[in-house]
Write a structure and sequence with these properties.
The structure is a homodimer. With about 290 residues, chain A is of the alpha/beta class. Chain A has 2 domains: about 120 residues, ATPase, nucleotide binding domain (Nucleotidyltransferase, domain 5), CATH 3.30.420.40; about 150 residues, Nucleotidyltransferase, domain 5 (2-Layer Sandwich). Chain A has 9 helices and 10 strands. In chain A, strands 3-2-1-4-5 form a 5-stranded mixed beta sheet. The structure holds adenosine-5'-diphosphate (ADP) (2 copies) and zinc ion (2 copies). The site of one zinc ion has 7 residues of chain A, from helix 4. Chains A, B: It is an enzyme of class 2 (transferase). Chains A, B: GO terms for molecular function: ATP binding; fructokinase activity; metal ion binding; transaminase activity. Chains A, B: It holds the Pfam family ROK. Chains A, B: It catalyses: D-fructose + ATP = D-fructose 6-phosphate + ADP + H(+).
């Protein structure tokens, strides 16, 4: 059996086919240009394989409410040409298979959840947060993707300011100093003039970032009580997560008992950014069998 | 059929029996003294009725994990005498009926959820936040109580400070300036020297509180995407919620589309603090039929 995966990002698309072991059999990558060209390439790719179901993990915002008239659409994205594009509808016309549609971070969250089940880890709920060009998050609660009215937008929560960061206004176009405005990659450049990948390891900006990322982990802990909080995205490194765990402990101050913090706040188990593709295979499989 | 409800608060217990219409047939109130005396009174009360199931909505922290050795216990509460009390076990010994055990706020959340279903409202998910002596919260997601590893502790999230409140340290014994430390009833007295019920309506403390309560609503919106956020507790009034809605709109800044804010951020539908009792009846009924 072959299952299809589209990881639809704002800059590139990754299409893949895999089997029911969720192993990648073939994959292709191309830049995100116009919807016609990009979705055309995806359709052309999947027509070469006999896939039985497809799952799409897409950039957003997207409409995931089944009952909505614009279900399956990318909605009011600032990305030129992509506003109100009927992503699922266009694919459905050309590929006659069940299609599951979710956010990029939900795809990654579900991939990590699936791997945890395959490894027999006692994980029923988890959160996946990505800190990259933006900040996004998805959660799996008792095996189900969280978000019935719409998908979460966990990147835009407000936070307590770091004392050494009070002069920085924040760069979220909606909220200025929300999590994304304070801790996504571009905020590093806005503060230091240098892109995150080139900033010295001992720069104080890392302590500022970890303070905010730790607060996001605290919020998720207090609201969702997940088994794991997983961090991905270009800004995240094991070095930064060490600081995040340190700040989490300080901010939590013993209030919620976390038995293994190293494992609680961690990087993805699936390597090479493969969480979303694996998640898509599992979600496509589920879509076929429901 | 008779169903039992215990609303176990830190200062008082409310025991009630009701029928499968979730109407109160009889109820009694007594102060929370020692566990022996208080639970003894509850047992004595329910022995007078032929209840078929019981639900307890308790102050916490409590252990709600079925697989845990201390399931059904009140755990490390600061309340003298109540630490590590086997609440469910002690009742089970004397009352031979199925018992459901959850937090006070989960009970209230489930009561409001149940009423919404009875009124045919299109509500699948909601959050109940209480702002009283402390701040607590519970959520119902697709009809299920949220929190598998443990119950939420939504009152202790960190927030962006109100510019006119930067001189106030916050009074949470764990975190100082978390939501509870900044917005619970005692914070009003700590700032003004006057208890909340006596502070003038035009005092600026109400704008400070509403700013924090609105941020809590923003967080819940971004993380859980519920259909409604319901506020209870002594500090909450329709007057304060007006300010909360105003601040919510400013802080959201059009990011998440809320069609009817008046209905989205609101007081409980069940009057006279009856949400938890009604929720208990529904939870007891479910416990009997699962
Ligand atoms: N090693 C690094 N340390 C810190 N920031 C980094 C690092 N590498 C990339 N970044 C930043 O991460 C952001 C890109 O994130 P990424 O997750 O790769 O892409 P996207 O979010 O667009 O999918 C950029 O702002 C970049 O400067
Ligand atoms: N009208 C009011 N306005 C503001 N605060 C109030 C009002 N009435 C009571 N409070 C405050 O609410 C808190 C008590 O909350 P309540 O929900 O009644 O009790 P508890 O949380 O202990 O169950 C106290 O701090 C009290 O000062
Ligand atoms: Zn924002
Ligand atoms: Zn606190």
């Amino acid at each position: 059996m072959l299952l299809g995966s589209i990881e639809a990002g704002g800059t590139k698309f990754v299409c893949a086919v895999g089997n029911e072991d969720y192993r990648v059999k073939n994959s292709v990558k191309f830049p995100t240009t116009t919807p016609e060209e990009t979705l055309g390439k995806a359709i052309e790719y999947f027509k070469k394989f006999k896939i039985e179901a497809l799952s799409i993990a897409s950039f957003g915002p997207i409409d995931v409410q089944y009952t909505s008239k614009t279900y399956g659409f990318i909605t009011n994205t600032p990305k030129p040409g992509w506003k109100n594009v009927d992503f699922v509808g266009l694919l459905k016309k050309e590929l006659d298979v069940p299609i599951f549609f979710t956010t990029d971070v939900n795809g990654s969250a579900f991939g990590e959840y699936t791997v945890a089940q395959l490894f027999n880890e006692k994980i029923k709920s988890l959160v996946y947060l990505t800190i990259g060009t933006g900040v996004g998050g998805g959660a799996i609660i008792d095996g189900e993707i969280l978000g019935t009215k719409g998908h979460p937008e966990m990147g835009h929560v407000y936070l307590k300011r770091h004392p050494a960061d009070s002069g920085f206004e924040g760069i979220c176009p909606f909220h200025k100093d929300c999590l994304e405005g304070l801790a996504a990659g571009p905020s590093i450049k806005a503060r230091t003039g240098i892109a995150g990948e080139k900033v010295a390891q001992d720069d104080k900006v890392w302590d500022i970032l970890s303070y905010y990322i730790a607060q996001a982990a605290i919020q998720q802990t207090l609201i969702l009580r997940p088994d794991n909080i997983i961090f991905g995205g270009g800004v995240i490194s094991e070095r930064l997560l060490k600081k995040v765990r340190r700040d989490f402990e300080k901010l939590n101050n013993g209030y919620i008992d976390i038995d293994d913090l190293e494992n609680y706040i961690r990087m993805p188990r699936v390597k090479n950014n493969g969480s979303a593709t694996l998640g898509n295979f599992a979600l496509a499989f589920n879509e076929l069998h429901k």
